[in-house]
């Protein structure tokens, strides 16, 4: 199984250690949130130097505050610093409260913005020229430098339009809060159809969800409801939760004993996911013990 983990913590050294340990434990990838280590690409460059093969991906960097030409340049420089294949750039438009209230930018035409953004970024990452005159972006790059190392591109796509864009122009999608049902009935059919129509390879579907191995399911879901409550009120996540029949993030979280969690993870792959991005969270008084139990199962599954 292709199973990855979330990078986290305030210390860059600690995050690099996480990547090294994840590779040693057989995980295929480690995913860096947009603000981890201050700038995820800096931290990923250091982690890439300390590892040999594990995929390092962003989940995700925001489109609005970083121009796609600069985004392509930064990603190419990070891939060069790694000195090996394995960098995946996950991008997404974020959410209205962040873009409007924090950055002071308009979120009014998020679908059109993201489609134009990817239309500029994707060819630049392939070393292709871009001549784009759109409503949201105007870009003229006649002779971009071809990245010395390949850079994968995933789009955080949950709605129909962005799933089409992801299938047509990127390597796939990286999800959060999308359970097996939402992948099976909504994500996989749409992105696969778009990729097929565009003559592209089968897309990656990276399913990110909270995970906790714990015998008391009610207690685990209660903790998940508190820890991940904010995702349930953001419209982008609220829609995908509704599609999956989940009342909130606690329902989408993967919880239970070892057998139950293994079954739920297998269900994600059966629904169409190509990768699972696990975000372990502790439950109960023994937080360290809870994390170890979850990590032990994920390590076992990653090796299977």
Question: How would you describe what is shown here?
Answer:
The protein is of the alpha/beta class and about 300 residues long. The chain has a domain at about 175-304: Luciferase-like domain (TIM Barrel), CATH 3.20.20.30. Helices cover about 50% and strands about 20% of the residues. The protein is built from twelve helices and twelve strands. The protein has helices spanning about 10-25, 40-50, 70-80, 95-100, 110-125, 160-170, 180-195, 215-225, 235-245, 250, 260-270, 285-304, and strands spanning about 5, 30, 55-60, 60, 85-90, 130-135, 140, 150-155, 170-175, 205-215, 255, 275-280. The strands form two sheets. An eight-stranded parallel barrel has the order 1-2-3-5-8-9-10-12, surrounded by eight helices. It has a two-stranded antiparallel ribbon with strand order 6-7. Helix 2 links the parallel strand 2 and strand 3. Helix 3 packs across helix 5, helix 6 crosses helix 7 (about 180-195) and helix 7 runs parallel beside helix 11. The longest helix has 18 residues, at about 180-195. It is globular. The N and C termini lie close together (about 5 Å). The model has no long low-confidence stretch (mean pLDDT about 95).
């Amino acid at each position: 199984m292709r199973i990855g983990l979330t990078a986290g913590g305030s210390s860059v050294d600690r995050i690099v250690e996480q990547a090294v340990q994840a590779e040693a434990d057989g995980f295929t990838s480690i995913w860096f949130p947009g603000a981890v280590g201050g700038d995820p690409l800096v931290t990923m460059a250091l982690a890439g130097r300390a590892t040999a093969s594990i995929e390092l991906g962003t989940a995700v960097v925001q489109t609005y505050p970083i121009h796609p030409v600069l985004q392509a340049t930064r990603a190419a420089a990070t891939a060069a610093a790694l000195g090996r294949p394995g960098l995946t750039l996950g991008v997404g438009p974020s959410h209205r409260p962040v873009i409007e209230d924090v950055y002071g930018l308009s979120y009014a035409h998020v679908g059109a913005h993201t489609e134009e953004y990817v239309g500029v970024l994707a060819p630049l990452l392939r070393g292709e020229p871009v001549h784009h005159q759109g409503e949201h972006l105007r870009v003229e790059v006649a002779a971009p430098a071809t990245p010395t190392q390949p850079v994968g591109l995933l789009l955080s796509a949950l709605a129909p339009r962005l799933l089409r864009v992801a299938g047509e122009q990127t390597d796939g999608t990286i999800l959060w809060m999308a359970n097996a049902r939402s992948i099976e009935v909504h994500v996989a059919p749409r992105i696969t159809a778009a990729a097929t129509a565009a003559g592209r390879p089968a897309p990656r579907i990276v399913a990110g969800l909270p995970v906790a191995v714990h015998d008391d399911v009610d207690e685990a879901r209660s903790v998940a409801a508190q820890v991940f409550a904010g995702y349930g009120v953001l419209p982008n996540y609220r829609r995908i939760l509704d599609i999956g029949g989940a009342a909130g993030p606690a329902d989408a979280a993967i919880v239970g004993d070892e057998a139950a969690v293994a079954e739920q993870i297998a269900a994600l792959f059966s629904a169409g996911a190509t990768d699972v991005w696990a975000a372990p969270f502790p439950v109960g008084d023994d937080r360290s013990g809870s994390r170890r139990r979850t990590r032990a199962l994920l390590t076992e599954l990653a090796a299977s």
